[in-house]
Amino acid sequence: MKKEHLPVFGVGPFCGISMLLLFIVGALLSHFGYLDSGKIPAMRIPLIVIGALLIALGVFIWVQAVIITKIDKAIVENKLVTNGIYAWVRNPIYSAIAIALTGLALLFANLWLLFLPVIYWLDITILMKKTEEKWLTEQFGQEYIDYCKQVNRCIPWFPKRKNK
After folding, report:
1. Would the pLDDT of 164 be above 60?
2. What is the pTM of this model?
3. Predicted confidence band at 1 (pLDDT cuts at 50, 70, 90)?
4. Which range (3-12, 76-85, 110-119) has the least confidence?
5. Which of 8, 32, 44, 53 pairs as cysteine with 109 (C-beta 3.0–4.6 A)?
C-alpha cells in the first residue's frame, strides 16, 4: 500500500504569514513612535549591517531549502530529506523566514523588536510539534526520530555526528 504524501505546503503559509504579520505590527509600532523607548540610534549602523547579513542569510537558506533541494518534489515522492541545508536545520524554510524577518527588525534599531525572534521561535516550535513532526513521525518512523536527534528544529547549527 502506497503511503499518501505529506501536504506540499503543510502549515507553512500559516507559520510564515503569522511571523510576517507580527513583524509588520512591530515595524508599524516602531515607525509611528509607540516603541520609542527601545530605540538605540547609536547602534543604527552596526544593526543595519547585521540586519542586512541576516536578510541575506535568510534568503540563502530559503534558496537552499526550496530551489536547490527541490523539497516539493521530495514531498510528492515521499522522501525524507536529510542532506544539504536539511542536515543543518529540520525546518529551513521557516527558519529562513524568521532569520530574514529578524534582519528586517534590526534595521529599525529598536530593542523592543528583538522580542520578535523569540516569538518566531515559539511559533515554529509549537506549530511543528503539533503538525509536521507528528506527520513525519507517522510517515517515516524511526528514520525521522533519529534525524530529530541529530538536527535542530529551527536554529541552523552544525550537524551532530552520528554515534556508531
Report:
1. no
2. 0.88
3. very low
4. 3-12
5. 44
**For residue 61, what are the CA distances in angstroms to 54, 112, 125, 156?**
10, 26, 18, 9
Which three-class secondary structure string do you get for 96-114? Answer: HHHHHHHHHHHCCCEHHHH
Please state, in angstroms and rounded to a whole number, the distance separating the CA atoms of residues 102 and 118.
Answer: 10
Q: What is the pLDDT of residues 96-130, one digit of tens each?
A: 999 999 999 999 999 999 999 999 999 999 989 88
Q: Which helix (H) or strand (E) holds 22?
A: helix 12-31
Q: Report the b/e string of 48-59 with b at 16+ CB within 10 A.
A: eeebeebbebbe
Residue keyed to cell 536527534? 149
Q: How many CB atoms lie within 10 A of CB 75?
A: 17
- In total, the chain counts a number of residues equal to 164
Query: Among residues 62, 127, 68, 120, which one has the least CA distance to residue 89?
Result: 62
Residue 39: beta bridge partners? 110
The answer to whether the beta carbons of residues 104 and 23 sit under 8 Å apart is: yes
116-130 and 92-106 helices, crossing angle to 10°: 170
Q: Which contiguous run of DSSP H or E holds residue 89? A: none
